[in-house]
Design a protein that fits this description.
The structure is a single chain. By secondary structure, the chain is mainly α. The protein has one domain. 78% of the residues lie in helices and 0% in strands. The protein has one helix and no strands. It is rod-shaped. Keywords: Membrane, Transmembrane, Transmembrane helix.
Length: 41
């Protein structure tokens, strides 16, 4: 595997993880509204 390709893959994975985290954070208020029993705080 070329170093360039590896860098691209790492960047892509980081982007996917970042997007997933941002999506999860955006969904938290909605989840909190829907399932208040699952959140102890």
């Amino acid at each position: 595997m070329h170093p360039r390709t590896k860098q691209l893959v790492v960047m892509w994975i980081a982007t996917v993880i970042f997007s997933a985290v941002m999506f999860f954070l955006a969904m938290l208020p909605a989840l909190y509204e829907l399932y208040p029993d699952y959140f102890p705080f």
